[in-house]
Design goal:
heterodimer, A: 852 residues, alpha+beta, nine-stranded mixed sheet, 20 strands, B: 263 residues, outer membrane lipoprotein receptor (LolB), chain A, 13-stranded antiparallel sheet, 19% helix
Amino acid sequence: MILLRLISWPYFRKHILRTMLTAAGIVLGVAVFVGMHTANQSVLAAFSHTVDRIAGKTELQVTAGETGFGEDVLENVQSASTVRVAVPVIEAVVDSNIKGQGNLLILGVDMTGDRSLRDYDLESGDEAVIDDPLVFLAQPDSLIVSKEFAEKNGLAVGSRLPLGTAEGERRFTIRGVMKSSGLTSAFGGNLAIMDIYAAQKMFGRGRTFDRIDLAVRPGRTIALAEAELGAMLGPGFRVEPPSGRGQQFEAMLAAYSMMVGISSLFALFIGMFIIYNSFAIAVTQRRSEIGILRALGATRGQIRRLFLGESAVTGLVGSLGGAAFGLLIARGIAASIGALISDVYGVAQQADELATSPALLLGAIGIGVMTSIVAAAIPAYQAARVDPVQALQKGKYQVLSAGESRVRVAAAAILGAISAACLVIPLDRSRPVFYTGYVLAIIAALLLSPLLSLALARTIRPVLKWIRPVEGALAADSLIQSPRRTSASVAALMLSLALVVAFAGMARASYDTIIDWMESTLNPDLFVLPSQNIVVRTIRFPKTMGPELEAIPGVERIQMVRDARIVFRETPVMVVAVEIESVAQTTRRAPLAGDRDDMYRRAAAGEGLIVSDNLAQLQRLSLGDVLEIPAPAGLIRLPIVGIVVDYSDQQGTILMDRTLFERYWHDDTVNVLRVFLKPGAAVPDVRQRILKRYAGTRQVFVLTNGELKQYILKITDQWFGLTSVQIAVAVLVAILGIVNTLTVSITDRRRELGVLRAVGGLHGQVRRTIWIEALSIGCLGLVLGFALGAINLYYILQIVHHDIAGMRLAYAFPTNVVLTLVPTILTAAFVAAIWPAESAVHGSLVEALEYE
Amino acid sequence: MNERRCSHTILFVAVVSSFLAGADVEVLRAAEDARAIVAEAQRRTDAKSQRYEGVLQVFDAKGKISDKRWTFERLGSHGQSRVVLRFVAPPEVKGVALLIVNHPDRASDQWMWTPAIERDRRIALQDRSTRFFGTDFSFEDLEERDVNQNDYALLGEESIDGTPGWKIQSTPKQTRSSQYTRSIVWIRTDSYAVARIENYVKDKLVRRLNYSDIQNIQGIWTARQLEMLDLTRGSRTRLTLEKVQYNLPLDDEAFTLQAIRRQ
């Protein structure tokens, strides 16, 4: 502590900017970590909060995936001996049609019995009433809204509110206002209650419920009730506490969460290199100070602890700042994730509040401090190990000794060989081996980065000298003579760019694959949808619309599609029910496994199922495997008759014939109608006819093939929005690292630069020297980053294929992104050099010459 | 000496036994009397059918009054009856109907029909304790009960509105589920008409139903005004019966779910 106070504190104060830059590395890493995880947790917490608030006193919920189930199930559940009360529920998310208000969550309930489970706080106190319960039930346009929603929008009992329904826009009458309570805080207060049977009609649900909420009879346990209901209802139903839905939501987000995890870990890793760089430079800078301390009797241990202590303090300050900054950016990230979830998964979320977890914050701070200590460990060790006499010598310490170079090369070669050997065993056979090989490859690259930087610096020296004979040579020599100072910045930049290249490559490959799939499979001319958002399945069409559309002039064929998420082997996957016989005639793409004709024939006859390639990859399925699909009417046991490319859902898709779906789910409604036109029919004309046919009677949205593809690509863009975050991080890393390196470089070369100016060197020449050095560091980082990125891309594609989305993506180096990164990083490097260059130019010449 | 003591003991036991037996007999007689009174009250209101037009007024705790009107038709009596209750005013609720099928040995089956959405819904047994559309009657209160569904105990005699009456405690049998733990019923001694019912949940009085304006219509003493007080909420609902008729011809088919869906 004394040493920290007497030695470290004055150093921090004297080099406040460098200290801040050092801490900034940890700030960046911790901020990204905290921001992304807090945002993720906030969205999950918002979903769970909504589920909990709506659940009220519900102890168990009966569901059958997104499809819902027939009304007859309710009576069965109510008759169970362990059930005290069981009430049906429908949930629908609709656009509130109020500017700035977004979506409204409609809860359809049977008010005759629902109040046993949910406290509506309707008729108590002075603040909220329902006008007339019988009118509420008798009129299908009745709504009860939360007090918050009513006050925000100037609504009261009797006000009219337009909402989109299956029958088009309908004006609803507010017949009650709920006073503030746990229930009304669900969905950010944008909650409305409706009679369940009116909701069935308004949202085209036929005679189905989404779920049944129930409470257990006193004296009976929840486990007993689960067992009784499970046995009674069969495998097609899930009976679980409300929290189970939160877990399903989390499973749905697993892929996204994994990418967030990878990004945030990389950010911390990069921060570690910035710290390492700073401390390595600091050790160099304070060699004489170390020598004096050692000469005065300080032990190696004390020196080591001094630097570790400094790194711990820096890490703590940086982590605290990073945590605060992370919370600031978390809100923006949460909004972005919320929008992504809504557009990709059709689950509307409003994460209005941040779910700050003290455990996460403390963990992040702890990780930041540990990262800082780990990063400073090697410099601290090196500072402790050097002889006091050598410690008083300048310059030599920046050089890589031959011995050290050999050790690095040997270690890198061994690790690289082990990493290559690990590739022999595929990821799906042994995850530990694969990931070990991945980590070893990164470590090998890091070990080699100083030597590679040195080699590249020597390579570009002639070029730099050719561009600017004096400035170029000086810049190159600075890099060559001080590889330690340079390599950490280059390593940080290399890691950052490697991640950008990998994500960009993954995004590019995904785009290409999705486009290819759309071209060959999504080939209807028009798509008729009940809502603007294609993934929202709140509203459905009746089956009768199929023949109605077929009768429209210009229409050759209609395919009716019903899709819904179910839980298959504890994972939410998509079931797509369509007329397989018709699809066989319109789809051009051959299956990846199975005979095309046989596949379609058997699937159309209800004798088999077709699965998507990503489902087969993620669930380890093969042609011929018998699947057991839980459905309300029983368990479907059918073989896989074909494996196709289909990206309807990230977790995978099961395609079946509509008749099979109707038989097992008792549901003949439709989510999407695919329209194929007769030869010669004009798409705009038929589109108008469809809109005219249903004007005023039904809400329909008609998208052309091109518009739908644009929509899907837009969602894909959102999914890969993380890439933009990574690029921003890369730019910041570049600036931080290069400013840090140049600041020290200028201090180190103060005398050299002073001599230059003294013998007539112009300010412009000094500036250009610094600028060229910065741009050279940028170039080294770019070259090594792209090289490591090419390797990283391979690993990321394997992870995507086997662990995240099951997508078979072709390896393609993202040249477009790379070409964009070059000017971006070089510009960042130049910007980073501006201030150091000015400080080199405007420093005192006399002091520079006296510097010793 | 021992013989004397023994005989005194025997006499004592005999006296006590007879006293106790007498007490049991008294209790039994009282129970039988209570049941007999209730059975008689039920018998005197038996009719093949009934019809009336009802005016329902709900007075909430703040004094606000809402009015509705319905037609009430019943086929059969008590535990063997079926009821169709259909709202006729105001316009927002016109056509909403409730079908109640009463059973002598168990809870009734109830369905509600909503013409605006053309849907019926079953009122689950679990939901019978909820309020009937904002009134102070619960769905259970609308059931027609049979004398055999409860156990009775005569608590004595007490006047209601100056008219003497029997005070009887009624406890649902285990075979009949009820939201109420027990009820106290006052039956007028002169006409066997029910004058008041107080319903308890455990030891708390939750509802009181007063019968008034009792008239003899076609030989059946009928309360033309019923007022239910919800003592927890502080609100009351008044039902006024108009145009009461008994034993009129009613179509059996009209008391089915299909029939109320058609109308």
